[in-house]
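To the wet lab folks,

You asked to see what we're planning to order before we commit. Fair enough. Below is the target structure as tokens, and below that is the sequence we designed to fit it. If anything looks off to you, flag it before the synthesis order goes out.
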């Protein structure tokens, strides 16, 4: 059956907002067309009316589904070292069935909140069952970490084994370095070389904390606590003498997409440096996790003004109260109200689809199957309000 879905507004990155626009699709959500009142004839008797903005489904560019059982178990505002040490202590202290159940629930939560695709960081295989059964598309980033250069080969082997487990289950996966303070230059190079062989996207946490900057520049500060907690000697490490991003990016060059996650302490000169060096960067903002862990936010305007490609992530339930892209956009808009809602929605739909190389998602263009979502309770300027909420229609 052909469906004609009409909100107060239709949004798609290729049309912008269209007052009373109609998306025409089949029952499965495959898009036939977009109808614009005044330009196209609207079959009024067939139209399904909904209140709010009808948008393609959201792409969550950064999550850690495997940490879902830690919701409400990790203290807030302890900074990256407090967060990471508490996470290490608690993540394995739960029964397997509790971990599995929390993963299932988190997947359903994302589906309800209009998320159609996720770039998900994994350190283990606990999410495979849920991902295989889910209506959400997952791209898994098998995460690697080893600061000491001699550990690179062993860690690469384990990452490739984990990737093989996901691929055997029919799930797309690639390798991802954890962060500039936890991965050696040599391991970074191996990872992007391996991904390039398969035209695969990579992701790395970037400039999430002040402590990261201190450690990567000078080899000092609170990151040391994380290594001490794990019993890893880092006395040999004296820093790279440059900002985290400027030290790491030269080791991450490839012609494939690279998602830089968090960017809380990224300066305008870091942005310029990075954009000149790498042609396929995506800057992922996860504001609620930043508020949870560090209590600080990136300078959203500097990214917006630089005109770079931005995507949105929720991070995990270990550092967020929900897995909900609209909740992330609300934080950005409350801090940076001049950024138009159209821009925010483009980041959350088309840009995310491009970052994860998903040609079926992101816009209401003919032949795509991007999901149909309605965002309710926007104000008359089409700004999000406290009550704004996404609901999945298809
Ligand atoms: Zn993360």
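Sequence we intend to order:
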């Amino acid at each position: 059956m052909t469906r004609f879905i009409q909100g107060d507004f239709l949004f798609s990155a290729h049309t912008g907002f269209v007052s009373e626009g109609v998306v025409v699709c089949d029952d499965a959500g495959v898009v036939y067309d977009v109808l614009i009142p005044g330009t196209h004839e609207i079959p009024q008797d067939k139209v399904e009316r909904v209140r709010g903005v009808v948008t393609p489904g959201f792409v969550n560019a950064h999550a850690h589904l495997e940490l879902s059982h830690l919701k409400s178990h990790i203290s807030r505002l302890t900074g990256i070292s407090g967060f990471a040490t508490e996470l290490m202590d608690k993540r394995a202290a739960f029964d397997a069935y509790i971990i599995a159940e929390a993963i299932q629930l988190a997947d359903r939560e994302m589906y309800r909140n209009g998320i159609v695709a996720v770039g998900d960081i994994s350190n283990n295989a606990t999410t495979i069952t849920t991902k295989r059964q889910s209506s959400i598309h997952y791209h898994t980033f098998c995460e690697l970490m080893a600061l000491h250069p001699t550990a690179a080969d062993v860690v690469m082997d384990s990452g490739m084994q984990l990737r093989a487990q996901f691929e055997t289950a029919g799930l797309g996966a690639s390798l991802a370095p954890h962060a500039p303070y936890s991965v050696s230059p040599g391991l970074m190079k191996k990872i992007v070389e391996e991904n390039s062989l398969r035209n695969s996207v990579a992701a790395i946490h970037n400039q999430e904390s002040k402590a990261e900057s201190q450690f990567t520049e000078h080899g000092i500060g609170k990151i040391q606590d994380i290594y001490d907690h794990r019993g890893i000697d880092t006395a040999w490490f004296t820093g790279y003498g440059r900002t985290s991003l400027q030290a790491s990016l030269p080791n991450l060059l490839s012609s494939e997409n690279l998602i830089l996650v968090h960017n809380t302490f990224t300066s305008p000169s870091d942005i310029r440096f990075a954009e000149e060096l790498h042609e396929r960067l995506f800057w992922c903002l996860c504001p609620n996790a930043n508020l949870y862990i560090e209590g600080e936010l990136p300078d959203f305007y500097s990214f917006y003004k630089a005109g770079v490609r931005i995507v949105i992530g929720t991070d995990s339930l270990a550092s967020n109260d929900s897995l909900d892209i609209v909740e992330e956009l609300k934080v950005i808009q409350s801090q940076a109200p001049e950024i138009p809602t159209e821009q925010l929605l483009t980041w959350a739909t088309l840009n995310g689809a491009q970052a994860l190389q998903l040609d079926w998602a992101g816009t209401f263009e003919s032949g795509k199957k991007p999901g149909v979502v309605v965002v309710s309770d926007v104000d008359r300027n089409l700004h999000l309000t406290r009550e704004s909420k996404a609901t999945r229609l298809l």
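Structural context that might help your review: The longest strand covers residues 384-392. The chain has a mean pLDDT of 97.

Thanks,
Computational group
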